[in-house]
Amino acid sequence: MSKKENQQSSAKDKEKGLNSHTANGEDQFLTTNQGARINDDQNTLKAGQRGPSIMEDFHFREKMTHFDHERIPERVVHARGAGAHGYFEAYENMGEYTKAGFLQEAGTQTPVFVRFSTVAGSKGSTDLARDVRGFAVKFYTQEGNFDLVGNNMPVFFIQDAVKFPDLIHSVKPEPHNGIPQAASAHDTFWDFISLMPESTHMVMWVMSDRAIPRSFSMMEGFGIHTFRFINSEGKPHFVKFHWKPKLGVNSVTWDEAQKISGNDPDFLRRDLWQSIEDGNYPEFELGVQLVSEEDEHKFDFDLLDPTKIIPEELVPVKIIGKMVLNRNPANFFAETEQVAFHPGHLVPGIDFSNDPLLQGRLFSYTDTQLIRLGGPNFHEIPINRPVTPVHNNQRDGHMRQTINAGQSSYHPNQTGGGCPFQAAMHEGGYAHYAEPVSGNKTKERSKSFHDHYSQAKLFYNSQTEVEKKHIANALKFELGKVSMPAIQERMIAQLQEVDMDLADEVAKHIGVETPVKLDNELNQSIPADGNPEDFQSGPASPSIEKSAALSMEHITTDSIQGRNIAVLVAEGINIDSIEKLQQKAKSEGAKITIIAPTLGKIKTMDNQSIDIQKTLHSTASVLFDALYLPKGTKSDELLSKTPAAVLFVEEMFKHCKAIGMDDMGSLLWRSTRSAQLVDNNENASEGIVLNGEIDQFIKAVANYRFWKREEAGDLPV
């Protein structure tokens, strides 16, 4: 198409209200909404390569503002969430590192509100989507609100906030057909990821079982970014925040996740609510990794890069307090939906770093609340109000609730006696850390951000064999849903940089030959600084080869708190072992659910009666953490002839969960293919507890999974 023809076509498209890019897609340059061509869409404008972002970056502000206002009133991201009230208690005086008041004395308790969420799906999506989980905590301190707004993974997909709208647009339902919901297994997501090598580390986390947690109370939380602690003398330390769950880190399998989504899409939300109602309060310990300013550059990665962790072997996590969630919201909408978090809500003693993703979030969150909650007064909604008095010169605006007396709405003033006054630092006034800044205004990215594969390798190498298998299976599923071979090839090329065996296994499954060599210009990733000749993928190997903290299998507990144990019964059951199991489970914070073919009451073998809580047709094995089969000749015979009961047992076995029974092998158990696998393979017997050994069964429940069974063969259920 000639230039003249293109101009005529664009004019006609404008008359029709069409976007000319959509109409023909040829010879198009990326522009602002005002038509100015964009030279760099990969980086925000910064003061120096590693300096803070600059507000005059009109392209970033226009792009982010448009993104933040795309949908109302639902959150664009983190739309589906669950919340809880609680408190944070400090373990020690952290005055050596920070002057934050809530960290100055052991035993100090600070009210908190926490919101857990998925990222990609809408409010109506399932809890069990493969996704990052939001982990946001609002501390109502005596110095004002402090929001620690993080995720259950310590890194993110992108290094610069200007790419956030692109990331989310790619993972959301595709715009031409609105499909799929709350899922990354489609062309646009993997197209974007395959062109952004900086995402490789995060892809490893999202393809791991971390992306499908068993419970909100069984997942870690991270602040993601590097922040600063500032003490009363003004001395800084870089800090990364960690939440460590008391109950360990556990997940569901992908097969379970899909089935749970059909049986109970509110599974995680319900679990959090019920745990608090039952008095099994979720607990998390807060840990920090502290790095002195002098040691900022001692690592082979950049502390400002949000796609990197500080391995705990290099900087141990110091535990400084605990959080207990002990009260459910009184009203879901008023609290969980209207709570407004913002990483810019700080207290004296905590400050930012120049992480370009964090710097962009400082603009985006307030902008989002303006459209989502109707205007600038969202801080007056009860769930968002600080516990300290608020005094300033802000007035009016949509939904204003405060009635300010007097004629002064400005500062300085004499009409109001000069009030409210500025607070000096010794009076608790917030002052930003006086970090020296120099450099040209530029849209470059520091070369210290160019290593995209070493920590992806570190994460993968730190996984157990079964965890590696699950990552491979997740990639097979996700990339198997991609329809464009070029996207699949680019992703296999990325995986080759992480682990050649992993790349080969996934490639074989989706029909891509390895090794992949990308020659086509369209297959080249966009370099971080816009110059392909200067692009480097970074070191070939991580600074350390393995980190135990990165494997879920190494984050264990002997607690069964919050676990739900299924007990299958029918007419003629023996109640003795059930009562013993109930007493033991209750004392340790676990729940027993009695399941039978029908509801109501059934007669036991000694002519008593037992209440049935669920039927085989109203529940499913994937909703439970373990299974117990009490004895009873009549009951056993009835259940062995009930296909739903047989399936229930087989699924429990397939998902590698603990199974206990009163004798050496009930008729129901012998009726399953699981029993045949146990007979033929010693590995398959792991986690099968016989002869009514309740204490041994409880230990097996705490262990949760017995992965050796996967080597014994897969049941087609």
Structural notes for this entry:
Residues 1-52, 523-543 are annotated as: Disordered. Decomposes hydrogen peroxide into water and oxygen; serves to protect cells from the toxic effects of hydrogen peroxide. Belongs to the catalase family. HPII subfamily. The chain is of the alpha+beta class and 717 residues long. Among the domains are: 3-46, no CATH class; 80-184 and 212-360, Beta Barrel (Catalase HpII,  Chain A, domain 1), CATH 2.40.180; 558-712, Rossmann fold (3-Layer(aba) Sandwich), CATH 3.40.50.880. It is 28% helix and 15% strand. The chain is built from 21 helices and 20 strands. Strands 2, 3, 4, 5, 6, 7, 8, 9, 10 and 11 form a 10-stranded antiparallel sheet that branches. It has a 6-stranded parallel sheet with strand order 17-14-13-18-19-20, sandwiched between helices. Strands 1-12 form a two-stranded antiparallel sheet. Strand 7 and strand 8 form a beta hairpin. The radius of gyration is 28 Å and the shape is globular. Mean pLDDT is 90; it is low at 1-7, 9-18 and 528-540.
Features:
single chain; 717 residues; alpha+beta; Catalase HpII,  Chain A, domain 1; Rossmann fold; 28% helix; disordered N terminus; iron
CATH class of the domain at 80-184 and 212-360: Mainly Beta
Q: Rounded to an integer, what's the Rg over CA atoms?
A: 28 Å
Distance between the termini: 56 Å
Strand content: 15-25%
Mean pLDDT: 90
CATH homologous superfamily placement of the domain at 80-184 and 212-360: Catalase core domain
Task: Give a concise summary.
It comes from Echinicola strongylocentroti. The chain is an alpha+beta fold and 717 residues long. Helix content is 28%, strand content 15%.
